[in-house]
Design goal:
With 295 residues, this protein is an alpha+beta fold. The chain has two domains: 2-65; 84-291, Bactericidal permeability-increasing protein, domain 1. Helices cover 35% and strands 37% of the residues. The strands form two sheets. Strands 3, 4, 5, 6, 7 and 8 form a six-stranded antiparallel sheet that branches. The model is unreliable at 1-26 and 36-67 (pLDDT under 50). InterPro entries: Haemolymph_juvenile_hormone-bd (IPR010562), To_sf (IPR038606).
């Protein structure tokens, strides 16, 4: 008999499969008339058809299971030029709570706080500077404001401008620099506050076809970061000498533009690399039709 499985359809037993392909001669005393033989063959073919249909459905369901189910917190947007931009903005806003706390099942870390393993600053011009920050914890990122967003449906390029009203940084640092004629060297903890941090991100994506199904993959992200103003405090300068440390921090903040200029390229690269991984984790296993169905 056919067995009912958890997938909601019946699969033929091996005994029935053997019965389907039974090629034994008719038994003695069996009706061997043409009509009886035709009926017997018809029954066999009908049973075979049911068996093959079960196998086809089984493979179809198993193949469908390879596609990741779309989480309910990801809102889909149709490929309609008239509505795509507003729809994506609303989708990001709807995703804000998950981005804030993180999405472990998608491998997406929390942005509150947002962790930066390492950031470097290096220059050899009029203000020699060699500095690095480690285990930087950034708070305030979840309060981002979407200033503008555009989606090019032909190239699937997404351009978005964000503003972070205020960010706070805590972590460890190492510094070897010279401000004017004063050498600055030390290591310890840092605390910094930045305001009006504007970021422009450009997501470059491509369509990847696998087994006849189209998926989105982000291949590159460009980041352009500008910070209106910031203040930083470094503990541990001059072996912890308080007077010299306060004077050094004052000098650093008076020349913060040079420090920011030296830090900017590595900061942008770090942000782009982290976001690229997060973006691909979110869309991994989701088809193009799931994310952006045709109107």
């Amino acid at each position: 008999m056919f067995l009912t499985g958890h997938l909601g359809f019946r699969i033929a037993s091996m005994a029935e499969v053997y019965n389907i392909i039974d090629l034994s001669p008719p038994c003695s005393g069996c009706d061997t008339s043409k009509d009886a033989t035709k009926t017997r063959v018809t029954v066999k073919m009908f049973t075979l058809s049911r068996f093959l249909t079960s196998i086809f459905i089984l493979f179809s369901v198993l193949n469908g299971c390879l596609f990741k189910e779309l989480p309910d917190y990801i809102h889909v947007c149709k490929r309609d030029p008239a509505t795509i931009n507003d729809c994506v903005v609303k989708s990001i806003e709807a995703l804000r709570p998950q981005l804030t706390s993180g999405i472990p099942e998608l491998g997406v870390p929390s942005i509150e706080p947002f962790l930066i393993n390492e950031i470097k600053a290096l220059t050899s011009d009029s203000t020699p500077l060699r500095a690095s920050g480690h285990n930087i914890k950034v708070t305030g990122a979840s309060a981002f404001v979407i200033k503008s967003l555009s989606v090019d449906l032909d190239t699937l390029k997404v351009r978005v401008r964000l503003r972070f009203p205020k960010l706070h940084f805590e972590g460890d640092y190492k510094l070897d620099a010279q401000v004017l004629i004063v050498p600055l060297k030390g290591q310890g903890t840092l605390n910094a506050d930045a305001v009006k941090c504007d970021t422009e991100l450009v997501f470059h994506s491509q369509i990847v076809t696998k087994d006849g199904v189209e998926y989105i993959k982000f291949k590159k992200i460009e980041a352009d970061i500008s910070i209106k103003d910031y203040r930083v405090k470094l503990d541990g300068l001059f072996n912890g000498d308080r007077t010299l440390g306060e004077a050094a921090n004052q000098a650093i903040n008076q020349n913060r533009g040079e420090f920011l200029k030296a830090t900017k390229p590595h900061l942008e690269k770090t942000v782009a690399t982290n976001l690229l991984q997060v973006a691909n984790n979110i869309v991994d296993g989701l088809t193009l039709e799931q994310l952006f169905p045709k109107p």
